[in-house]
Amino acid sequence: MSLPPGFLDELRSRASLSQVVGRKVMWDPRKSNQGKGDMWASCPFHQEKSASFHVDDRKGFYYCFGCHAKGDAISFVRETENVSFMEAVEILAREAGMPMPKQDPRAQEKADKRTQLAEVMELAVQYFRLQLRTAAAGAARDYLAGRGLTPQALEQWEIGFAPDQWQGLWDHLKAKNVEDALILGAGLAKPSSKGGRPYDTFRGRIMYPIRDARGRAIAFGGRAMDPNDNAKYLNSPETELFDKGRSLYNVRDARTAAGQGKPLIVAEGYMDVIALVQAGFGAAVAPLGTAITESQLQMLWRISPEPIITLDGDAAGQRAAMRLIDLALPLLEAGQSLRFAVMPDGQDPDDLLRAHGAPALQKLLDNAMPMVRLLWQRETDGRVFDSPERKAGLDKALREKIMMIKDPSIRSHYGQEIKDLRWQLFRPQKAKRDFSPVARASGGGKWAPAPQGPSPSAKSSILVTAAGLGATEHLREAVILMALLGCPQLVEEFENGLAAMRCQDPDHRRIRDLMLRHVHHDPAVLREKIYDAVGEYTLENMLAQRHVAITPCIRSPGNLEKTRMTVAEELGKLEAVRGLDEEIADAVEDLTGTADEGLTWRLGEAARNADRAQRSGQEDTAEYDIAENGAHISRDERSAFDALLGSILKGDAKDKK
Q: Domain named Toprim: which ranges (predicted)?
């Protein structure tokens, strides 16, 4: 239906978003300000404890800081009432007292036809389900039972069977007075090229109904029972209801499960999705027999900001993933990307679940690679970079891929990650072979390799220095993270410094990554996500470090100015240590030959800088009497510490400006 210009703007201005949303939620009286149209509630799209769903009544938009749902009054009605765009408009217009404009007869006719096609598809679903219970479907039932599908699962997924008959479904639908044009238009039959009656599209196949986000049956996927059939899987042809590149199997239920906190998993086929859901991974979807399209990718991101792509452990699965990288790079946004879980060789998710169970799959999901790592793997696996030209070729290929990213911040982070991976690839090779060009006069002027490496004492002193600096760096990171946890509204201000932290400790890295991932969220939401992810025990251990617990801004969480000064100072010291580490690493690498005066001077400077850094770290901790065997905390100190931990975890500290 075509709406006249200005109708939707008028409708949005008349419809109060807070009233529309208020029918589905309970407003949080502590955070909401009705006079300003600033309303907060628990999100109706996913399960949560805190009020992270925000409605700006003046602007007419809502946004959830938890599941990232966003939109206006029309989209809210569409999502919560499970209706079409025009149906949502009609609902809001009726409430606002606005008459709907007269509908274009042609548009009405088209809408009516889609409704009729959907009704025919439902008749086909019921027919196929009945056929699965017949004697002719015995082999199909045995196959499904062998794949682990119980009778309850068959009902849940509405799995059916198309008998090996030319006009089985056609005759069934004609007996119900369904018009030829509707059967053909739904893709359930094909016209005969020999002038005979139309024949069924699906014959001798196990049938999987495909439903859209509204729950309408729009297509079928059929698996051939004949092992010699040229098409093992066959999808419905594209129709007015079904666009293969814009549809996903199980999209409706996956969206609900993802809203409840389940990870969104993208598998290859119907059985993979069914196996995943049966194993407890409810937010599973599959493209319909083709590579993921841009439309499908955008659908995935509307459900979850970071879907996990499960790759079959074969060459075809790897190629599909590599194509997906090129599709996704230009579309990346902050907090919106992909991760990749690679299945064992020759297995898909269904195989893995049947062989090793849900814990094995969960482990793969937990270790899913970020997209930048798969990009690096694609450009480097199986290749040798033993010449400047080959290295330059790698640099060019990676630079071209990174330049596809439109977001400058993401492009910068990709560049830094690739730089780090490149250093790891080439740096060790440089250290393995490094011969001095000094010729010895003995032996008739023949060339000989220079003396090998630094003395054990030189190596030992540098390694001890580095280890001491590492402990100091660990303490500084803990101070930074716990200080920002007390004032999470400052995370955005120190975003670049946080991103540069090395975080060798896995707990530090998880907390840092969560801060960066949710940097633009409500501070209370950010704090809760960190608490849920790492747990009270981890945070308590970090606070138990004396140097952390007695830091003034951590003892008084919420003091913005003290926290800002502390974090800025600690980040500055970490940056100085990183520069020192690079100098030491360069010096160690050059200790493969005879030390000249320049190298001696560099090592001396590195040692002096290391000594200053060590003294700085010791001065930070000396006054708190940290013994080598651990700190002892008095009863009064323990009480103060417990109160501090409670205030940070509960997030009830007030800003002290």
A: 262-344
For the stretch 117-129, pLDDT in tens is 999 999 999 999 9
- 331: amino acid identity, one letter: L
Confidence at residue 607, expressed as pLDDT on a 0 to 100 scale: 54
- Position 625 scores a pLDDT of 35
Q: At CA 573, angle to CA 428 and CA 417, rounded to 5?
A: 40
The domain locations on the chain are 7-96, 105-242, 243-432, 456-650
Backbone angles phi, psi at 164, to 5 degrees: -80, 65
Return the SS3 of 343.
strand
Q: Which two tokens stand for residue 518?
A: 């949710």
In CATH, what number does 105-242 get?
Answer: 3.90.980.10
- CATH architecture entry for 243-432: 3-Layer(aba) Sandwich (3.40)
Of residues 43 and 448, more confidence is placed in: 43
Integer-rounded Cα radius of gyration of the chain? 32
124: closest CA among 187, 82, 62, 71?
A: 187
- 425-479: pLDDT as tens digits: 886 543 333 333 333 333 433 333 333 444 444 344 333 344 455 678 888 999 9
Q: Which two tokens stand for residue 245?
A: 């590149």
386 CB neighbour count, 10 Å cutoff: 9
Structure-token pair, residue 464: 């001890």
Question: Nearest-CA neighbor of 489 among 516, 520, 528?
Answer: 520
Give the residue among 65, 62, 190 at the shortest CA–CA distance from 524: 65
pLDDT at 328 over 90: yes
Q: What pTM was estimated for this model as a whole? A: 0.57
